[in-house]
Amino acid sequence: MRDFHERMHAAGVYGLWELASQMTKHPEPKAVAHIWKASLLDAMIREAGEVVPVGEERRALQLFNPGLDGRWATTNTMIAAIQLLLPGETARAHRHTPTAIRFIMEGDGAYTAVDGERVYMRPGDLVLTPSWAWHDHGNETDTPVVWMDGLDVPLVQFLNAMFFQMHDAREFPLTKAHNASERLHGAGGLTPTWVKERPRSSPLLLYSWEATWKSLQALRDEKGDEHDGIAFEYTHPQTGGPVLPTMSCWIQMLRPGERLRAHRHTGSAVYCVVQGTGETIIDGRRFAWEKGDILTLPSWALHEHANRSSRDPAVLFSIQDRPVVEALGLYREEAG
Ligand code: GTQ
Ligand code: FE2
């Protein structure tokens, strides 16, 4: 019997009877719930600004999930990072198949250039970099700019679909007006009919904080969702679907003193605390959060959010891999 198993394994063969424990009753992610505190991230990114020049690579601190054995992954499918550009700096033009988002945390007036269009950014803005789009970043202001990056790197690696290319020049040539996509597609419910392309990723590259905050304020007295509060998904203006094929982006507000109900669902998420103070209980562990903290949620973990302030609203931005999970018919949700 033992000898048979050794010969089987040496031949690259395993019996299903040896693998039964992998057919788990429910998802058992190796990724764990984890929080990176703003105070720690802030000190580290400032130190990186002093000791690490922006060379060929971006100055971005990649947040490794402690459960994922040193893999480049914040959840099983996504990586989050904190990126700093100091006044006068540029990051070299390149492109890759992983899709990226930026959520601006600090600094007003730096840009990301995407396929020939400079997108100027302010705190709270969401900026998209679709798969395989050329991009470079620049900060022509006199203050540092800090943002959260979110990319589907682990998913693309798992699918063996990683491609990366550096551009010959430091900057990709500009072919469009600054913030052109916002003018063309940012009207909110009005889509230009002469634009015939229907890209997989949203053609609107900038979702301004001004519009986002206005929407949150307009609905602050609604009941909202019992698990997610006043929660919006950022949408592709032509399809109403998620902004990216592999990642959806959400903004959610918890009213002063609001405690939401627990639930669990398939798919993982990374949260960035935009404002306020609160806590999220994940599988019985309490994570207290404040502005600038980054919190990761594994698939199928029971979680509930609460605003700990009785005075101020709390706002969470998040990236989620739900579009992938839903496209494959694997989305499930259960109240706690
Ligand atoms: O700014 O283009 O955090 O390509 C990781 C990979 C940021 C970027 C990251 C990237 C970028
Ligand atoms: Fe990039």
Q: How many structural domains does the protein architecture include? A: 1
What is the CATH superfamily label? Jelly Rolls
Unreliable residue runs: none
How would you characterize the largest beta sheet? Answer: 6 strands, antiparallel
Q: SSE order in H/E notation?
A: HEHEEEEEEEEEHEHEHEEEEEEEEEHE
The portion of residues assigned to helices is 10-25%
CATH class category label: Mainly Beta
What's the pLDDT, averaged over the residues? 97
General form: globular
Distance between the termini: 45 Å
Give every kind of bound small molecule, once each.
2,5-dihydroxybenzoic acid, fe (ii) ion
User: Over all CA atoms, what is the radius of gyration?
Assistant: 21 Å
Give an overview of the whole structure.
With 336 residues, the protein is of the alpha+beta class. The protein has one domain (27-335): Jelly Rolls, CATH 2.60.120.10. It contains six helices and 22 strands. The strands form five sheets. A six-stranded antiparallel beta sheet has the order 1-19-16-21-14-13. The protein is globular and about 70 Å long. The N and C termini lie far apart (45 Å). It binds 2,5-dihydroxybenzoic acid and fe (ii) ion. Residues 94, 96, 100, 135 line the site of fe (ii) ion (FE2).
List the helices and strands and how they pair.
Layout: H1 2-10, E1 34-36, H2 38-51, E2 60-62, E3 79-85, E4 90-96, E5 100-106, E6 110-114, E7 117-121, E8 126-129, E9 135-138, E10 145-151, H3 153-158, E11 164-166, H4 180-185, E12 206-207, H5 209-218, E13 230-233, E14 248-254, E15 263-265, E16 269-275, E17 277-282, E18 285-290, E19 294-297, E20 303-307, E21 314-320, H6 322-327, E22 333-335
Antiparallel strand pairs: 1-19, 2-3, 3-10, 4-9, 4-11, 5-8, 5-10, 6-7, 6-9, 8-12, 13-14, 14-21, 15-22, 16-19, 16-21, 17-18, 17-20
The structure holds 2,5-dihydroxybenzoic acid (GTQ) and fe (ii) ion.
